[in-house]
Every structure is written in C-alpha cells, then in structure tokens.
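Subject: design request, 91 residues
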C-alpha cells in the first residue's frame, strides 16, 4: 500500500478538478480525500496499491479538460482515516 499527499497548482479551481479527482479516485477504489485550498491549489491524500496511486498521480498532471496544471508536488503521507474517497471543504 502507498499513501501520498499531492498539491496541484495552476488553473485547478473552478474547472471541476476536485470533483474529477474524487470521481477518478473512486473508480480506482482508492481511499483518501480531496479539497480546494484558499491559496488556489488543490490538495489530496491518495491511498491504495502503489501502482494505482502512481497512475492517479500521473492522471493529476493532466486533470479534467479545462484544467491547466503548472506544478504537482508529491510527498509521503499517513494513511487516511476511514474508507472510501471523499471531497472535503475548502481550507
């Protein structure tokens, strides 16, 4: 199992990035959460089989059609509490 925290920068708010990420992670049966941040970035914790997490991170480099990702940072994270993948409120 792999657990990562990603922060996505660029044109990622107002383009359905959070909803897209939640949908994609759910389809991949990942656990974790996603939220918009007040600084204009999107943050997520992704947890699951290493290959699946890595594929989701790769997909985040592109995102939904209207998004323009300029930077994506990835770091190790603690496993998320609970199960499933959920959107969180903006912080």
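Subject: RE: design request

Done. Sequence follows.
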């Amino acid at each position: 199992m792999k657990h990562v925290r990603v922060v996505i920068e660029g044109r990622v708010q107002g383009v359905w990035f959070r909803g897209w990420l939640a949908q994609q992670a759910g389809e991949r049966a990942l656990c974790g959460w996603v939220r918009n941040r007040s600084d204009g970035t999107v943050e997520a914790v992704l947890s699951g089989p290493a290959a699946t997490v890595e594929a989701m991170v790769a997909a985040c480099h592109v995102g939904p059609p209207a998004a323009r990702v300029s930077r994506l940072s990835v770091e190790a994270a603690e496993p998320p509490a609970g199960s499933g993948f959920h959107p969180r409120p903006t912080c």
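Helices lie at 17-27, 50-60.
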